[in-house]
Specification:
The chain has 558 residues and is an alpha/beta fold. The chain has 3 domains: 261 residues, no CATH class; 103 residues, EF-hand (Recoverin, domain 1), CATH 1.10.238; 95 residues, Recoverin, domain 1 (Orthogonal Bundle). It contains 19 helices and 13 strands. The strands form 4 sheets. Strands 3-10-9-4-7-5-6 form a 7-stranded mixed β-sheet, with helices on one face. Helix 1 runs antiparallel to helix 2 and helix 2 crosses helix 3. The N terminus and C terminus are likely disordered. Its main location: membrane. One of its GO terms (cellular component) is membrane. This is Lysophospholipid acyltransferase LPEAT2 isoform X2. Pathway: Lipid metabolism; phospholipid metabolism.
Amino acid sequence: MAHPDLTSPLLPTSAPRPQHSAITIDDTPQTPKNTKTHPQNHNHHHGPHNNTQTAAASHPSPYEFLGGRPFSAPTPSTVDPFKNDTEKIDGVYELLKIVICLPIAAVRLLIFGVALGIGYLATKLALEGWKDKQNPMPAWRCRLMWVTRVCARCILFSFGYHWIRRKGKPAPRDIAPIVVSNHVSYIEPIFYFYELFPTMVASESHDSLPFVGTIIRAMQVIYVNRFSPSSRKHAVNEIKRKAACDRFPRVLLFPEGTTTNGKFLISFQLGAFIPGFAIQPVVVRYPHMHFDQSWGNISLGRLMFRMFTQFHNFMEVEYLPVVFPLENQKEIPTRFAKRTRQVLARALNVAQTSHSFGDIMLLTKASELQQENPSNYLVEMAQVESLFHINSLEAVNFLDKFLSMKPDSSGHVTIDGFLSALKLRFSNLTDEVFHLIDVDNNGYITFKQFLFASAHVMKQPLFRQACEQAFREYDVGGNDHVSEEQFGESIRPAVPEMTKDEIHELFGLFDADGDGRSSREEFLTCLRKNPLLIVLFSPQLGQAHTSGNGETTSDDIV
């Protein structure tokens, strides 16, 4: 049976195919040949949303006054596509191998340093006096960059990649001006630099890296800030411009946007697919038994040390047939990306998930706050963004709030921690809110459940109007602020059990600057960061009349 967190089952490895041929992928979900069907199980689903199967809440929602559909809790994520399986050195064999390879590692480190230094100097010479970097690099400068490319191969040799197995060949640039690849380690960019010398798309932060920043500038790299819409738009325009001009080298992208452990294929960014050019997919594999070469939850220094102390590191590169856009380049980018992603997944024989770089941000945040198992806080951010339009930075803020609830080693939070972080006390209403999230009645909630519930409330049709109305309702003097006394009066109908001291503590969430009153901006910001708290104003907001069909309308609240 397919894993509940995977968007597709494992796929059989494809048979060898002719190079540079056009392929068409049928993305209609199909039942795997070796999967037994169970007619009596009518709840078993296949297809791209298998990992989003949810259990609908069986009791009334305290947020019904906001309109919209009832909340459905997500199934937990149980896979970690970023986990390096050999982060720690285990076993006598590995320890013995490291001891034996230490003298070899010293020589390799010397080769690495010399090759990097020579490559850096050659690149500086190739870039010297070059002003017009909007146009392709002149031929003589490209020839000089061959010195750096040879140095890149020496660096791969120093890391233990004495030979690299290749399958297939790069398609001619005029057929496939864009190349996409899975991303497992920092090794792939070095290999592609040597093999193809492409124009790469990279994060702006790479430009400031010592030595490396200078070298990648010679590739006329397209920088992008993933958090800036204008930067992403500019990057797409540059991809299109350079892919359309035969004088530029190929454009290389890693559409996953981050490294994984190679056991899954995570969601694709669309930058490579929006221009509508033919794409050659390439897959990279790192066969191993004792040392996982993926750059996941392992530091760069430790990974380099482990590479230096191996007898040999295996690497396989397979150039796949070109994928052409359908209907004369009018195919929508999401479908083009989906077809290409399926090609890579089949070649790698791995499953696809909805994780993204946003999950790396959550993983990093959990690690920084010393959580015992950071993998508990992966949520498949591509799915969250698609369903709720919550971006990664907002998800990190929600994680901050969740971690303040003091989850246990399994990432579970009880009602006591939940209420403490939200400055609430136990009542019928707060119990309803907690059990809205804990639909399985486990007595605890996970971060994914908390995030989905918070995002669900924010997405309700009347959430923004309700926040505005809640503030206006108690801004009695029209002074654009609510006092603590007015705030206490506003929430007492919802939580009459709260004492004056408890109300004071809760009001602190709405009074960010501590001046004893909550401005409109402070009030609305607090509800955006803690959308579940809008329920405190439900008695007044819920008094709205309903329309003839029984549904609440915006006129009822505003």
